Amino acid sequence: MGIVVQKFGGTSVASEESRAMLVAKVIEARHDGKDVVVVVSAMGRKPAPYATDTLLDFVLSVCRAAPARERDAIAACGEIISTVVVAAALEAAGCPAMSLTGAQAGISTDGNYTDARITKIEPRRILEALSDGKVAVVAGFQGVTETGDVTTLGRGGSDTTAAALGATLGAEIVEIYTDVEGVMTADPRVVPEARFQDTMSYTDLIEMANQGAKVVHLRAVEIAMHSRIPLAIKSTFSDSPGTLVADVARRAVATFAPPRVVSAVTTVAERTQLVLHGDSYGDTGSVLGVFATLADQRISVDMINVFPDRIAFIVASREAAAAVATLGELGIEAEANPGCAKVSVVGEGMRGVPGVMARVARALHDAAVRVLQTSDSHYSISCLVPESDMERAARALHAQFELGK
Ligand code: ADP
Ligand code: MG
Question: What's residue 137's pLDDT?
Fold first, then answer.
């Protein structure tokens, strides 16, 4: 019998009504003869009592400098509460279920608190629950180190739990249930014209996640791609089939439309541009070591542009002060320009296609958006813009590449 992994995000487990929808999805899959493994996130968003940030803020209010190990231990409680509540809701609906923490589910990780990676899964307890005719309800976003310490997988990490379980269990499909109908051509909260996509390639979704689309965790898509497991992104609140992410061959069969150059627009707000001027650091070659130091501090940098007389890059605004301080300790003065946003066009179809950058530049110019910096890769072009122009820029690019059609 086939196994289906169904992951339900924060809004899907937050209320009695949403849990009733969740229960209906699980029961439907069981009626289709599937063994079901459910992965859950914490209930709702702050200030909901058991949301990840509520729990974290609680311990931070006691000690601002609570160590990462302790922060992970409390953050992981949110998902554990969800597993018990969801298992109880399933039982109440006559569907046998068993809650499992990450550790009980056999999920091992490295010791990199707050952003741990899954190293191994021993699914014995899950398989036992399934063979007892139960639904296994597993806490997402968490695992346990070799020494038995609780870790978390980074924001959005429940998606990765689901994909990793799907890979380990040889699931037929991993279904990510959330509060939108599926993957759209842009975040519908930013670009109202965003269009739903019924199929997508793994590569496009990886690039979207990599460029900040919050809809699925990057690592989840990578795992699904490497283990060739189809991924569906669906709404808990409707019966729409959602977005199917599978091998390109399958997509070619599914749609006969010509490939698009650009598949989606993504946005990342709250960025700060840091500019290092040559007169403050001297030699460009030797200063590049600063990136290793920032990495050691776990500050991630993006859009690095190196010029003969200056270096510009961006960081998350919440990390800007720490980045400036770290650079200061190295004797390097950084000019910080807060209030920026990164807007990107992504798509495997742009690889090797000339003129995409020119179209990006023209669209932003026509929309009177000032471009502060750019970067590109095979599958994406990103522009740093003033945060106040982010929406306008995203909508202009969405229109330029006719993504709404
Ligand atoms: P969950 O708690 O279910 O994991 P998330 O908030 O992590 O939900 O992800 C769903 C959200 O992702 C949507 O509400 C939407 O605003 C956002 N999002 C960003 N980019 C996209 C996109 N391209 N398509 C769909 N949703 C997107
Ligand atoms: Mg998510």
Answer: 99
Both tokens of residue 133?
């005719």
Q: Which residues pair with 246 in a beta bridge?
A: 201
And the tokens for 347? 């798509």
Summarised one tens digit per residue, pLDDT across range 71-124 is: 999 999 999 999 999 999 999 999 999 999 999 999 999 999 999 999 999 999
Q: Does the Cβ of 143 fall within 6 Å of ligand 1?
A: no
Residues in the chain: 405
Question: pLDDT for 239-290, tens place per residue?
Answer: 999 999 987 645 555 555 667 899 999 999 999 999 999 888 878 777 888 8
Q: Find out whether the beta carbon of 184 lies less than 6 Å from any atom of ligand 1.
A: yes
Residue 238, φ and ψ in degrees, nearest 5? -150, 180
Give the mutation target among 52, 161, 180, 240 for probing the ligand 1 site: most ligand atoms within 8 A of CB: 180
Atom of ligand 1 nearest to the CA of 217: 7
Residues surrounding ion ligand 2 at CB below 5 Å: 156
DSSP string across 112-147 = -TTS--EEEE-THHHHHHHHTTPEEEEESSEEE-TT
